[in-house]
Amino acid sequence: MTPSPTQVLSIKRKVLAAAATLTMVGGVSAAATGAASAATPACGEPCISVFSSELGTYADPNFVEAVLGGGAAKVGQPVGLKRASRTDPSQDFLPGGATGGSKVSDFYADGMVSAEVNRHYGHLDAVQQKYAPFGIESGLCVGLARVAYQNEGLTLQPCDVPATTVWIVHPVPAATPYFAIVNASTTDFRRPSAMHLPRNEVASGKPLQMQVRRLQFRTGERTLPARQLWGAVFGTLR
Predict the structure, then answer these.
(1) Is the pLDDT of residue 184 over 70?
(2) Rounded to whole angstroms, how far apart are CA atoms 63 and 231?
(3) What are 39-90's pLDDT values in tens digits?
(4) Which of 79, 81, 110, 212 could form a disulfide with 193 if both were Cys (CB 3.0 to 4.6 A apart)?
(5) 3-class DSSP assignment, residue 78
(6) pTM over 0.90
(7) Do the beta carbons of residue 84 and residue 63 sit within 8 Å?
(8) How many other C-beta atoms lie within 10 A of the C-beta of residue 1?
(9) How far is Cα of residue 99 from the mean position of the Cα atoms in its chain?
(10) Using CA atoms, how far apart are residues 81 and 167, in angstroms rounded to an integer?
(11) How far is CA 203 from CA 59, 70, 74, 135, in A?
């Protein structure tokens, strides 16, 4: 089901609000999200661009989520990070919600996530990232080929595949405008499987395929490494 413009904008606000709650200084991250963004003009304001806090900031995302290997809209195509460009349609994604809204509980009502995932995360925001080069939906979403396992690469999958194409905006206790992004197929709720930037490839300067790994909480403050913290901006790259 294609969301209406009203639904898309509602999801946009909720994802940004989830990011905003992670900072101690009210309004800082919400203001920062207007500083820069990444998508083609054809995709425009509704498009969402996910970036890694290891490589960029809200003011300058630098590298953003993209379909690799030429950007082909086909099942199994790898998804990773590329240098942000307003002319590259492989970076065009639209946020999608469930029928009733953008909470994990709404995806549960649609049969897209398990009862156990809903029990742990039902109150959190969730989203599908729909591949939409030049703003045209492909029917494919950022996801996993099977139930999340360690070091599994992100790929394009049919948007109607349950759980593996649903991503949960997971707040972290430490004061930061960034957040973890957990895959809804996770089965380990102490250390859930979440988006991860491979350590040994961060400095390569080449397109990077993203992975899922169990969250690597550190110390009593339960902080996370930058490779597992993400931000999101909306609209066309200036």
Answers:
(1) yes
(2) 11
(3) 889 998 889 999 999 989 998 998 899 999 999 999 999 999 998 998 999 9
(4) 212
(5) strand
(6) no
(7) yes
(8) 11
(9) 19
(10) 17
(11) 20, 22, 28, 31
Give the separation between CA 42 and CA 27, rounded to whole angstroms: 29
Among the residue ranges 6-15, 36-45, 48-57, 203-212, the one predicted with the least confidence is 6-15
| Count of beta carbons in the 10 Å neighbourhood of residue 161 | 19
CB count in 10 Å sphere of residue 59:
12
Closest by CA to 124, choosing from 171, 179, 178, is 171
DSSP β-ladder status, 126-131 and 93-96: antiparallel
If one counts every other C-beta atom within 10 angstroms of the C-beta of residue 203, the result is 9
pLDDT: is 162 or 140 the higher one? 140
Least confident of 6-10, 70-74, 113-117, 156-160: 6-10
Tokens encoding 179:
């957040």
